[in-house]
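Please, structure for the following, as C-alpha cells.
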Amino acid sequence: MRLDSMRVLVTGASGSLGWALSRKLLPGCEVVATYNSHPSVPAGTEALRLDLSDRDALGDLCRQNKPDVIFHCAAMTNPDECEQDSRRALRVNFEATLEIARIAKDMGSRLVFTSTDLVFDGSKGDYREDDAARPLSIYGMSKLRAEEAVLGIGAGSIVVRSSLMYGMGSETSGTFLTRVTDALAGGRQMKLFTDQRRNPILVDDFVGALMAAVEGDLSGLYHVAGREVLTRFEFGREVCRAFGYDETLLVPISMEDFSYVAARPLDSTLNTEKFTSATAFQPTGIAEALAGLAAEMA
C-alpha cells in the first residue's frame, strides 16, 4: 500500500511525533493535520482544530475529510496529569480512540495507532508483543484499553508501541532530548535516573517505521524502539559527548529519589524482532543520531 498521493489524517500534528510525521508525508500526500491548543503544524498541511473529547466534532472531521489512512498520534501523554485527571485521560486516550476506530472501519480507512511501552509493569524488560500488559498508571491503562479497541474493531489496523522518543521536537512540543539540551546549554544541572531502563528511538526513525508498516501492509500489534538499552543518565552522557556539554552537570538519581504522582516501570524495554523481521527496519544508533542532531542544531 503506497502512501504516495493518498489523503492522510494525522492527529496531534503540533506534537513532536505528529509534527515529524506530517512533515515526512509532505509533499507526496495530502495531509490533514489536527491540533488542539497549539495551531502550529508543518507548512503545507491543512490544519484543523480538534478536541478529542468532542465525539461529534471528531466524527464530523473524519467523515468530511475521508482520509485513506489515519495516523492517530494525539493523546494525553503526561502520566502524572493522567493520574490527577483520570476521567479526562480515559476520554481522550481511550474513548476518542475507540470512536476513531469505529469511524475508520465505517469509512474503510486504514488506522495506525501509536501506543507506549508504559503498558508494561517493568518487572522483566525485553517485552514481546504477546507478553502480558500490566500498566502501573492511568496513562498506561488508558493506552492499553485503546489498543484493545483498535485491534478489536479495525480489521487491518496497526498498533505500534514505542519507547522513549528523542529528537528536535516541534515548534510547540519538545522531547526528552530537548529538555536535556535546554538545561545543559544553560549551565543548569539535570537530574537523571540511573535505574530506569528503556530503548530510546529517534522520532524520525519512528516516523519511518510507521510509514513502513502501512506500505508493508502490516496489521496487528508491533513494537518499535531503539536497539540500545540505556538509562536516562546514560542517555544524558551520550548527549554530553555529542553536543560537547559538561558531564558534571548530570546528577545521577534513582527513581526512589523522585516523587511522581504516577508510578513508572523500572524496565519497560521492548523486543522489536517481530517488526524488524517484517520490515527489515533498523533504527539509527544513538551516538550517530545525536551527532547528526548536534550538527543540525549547531
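The first strand starts at residue 7 and ends at 11. Residues 86-107 form the longest helix (22 residues).
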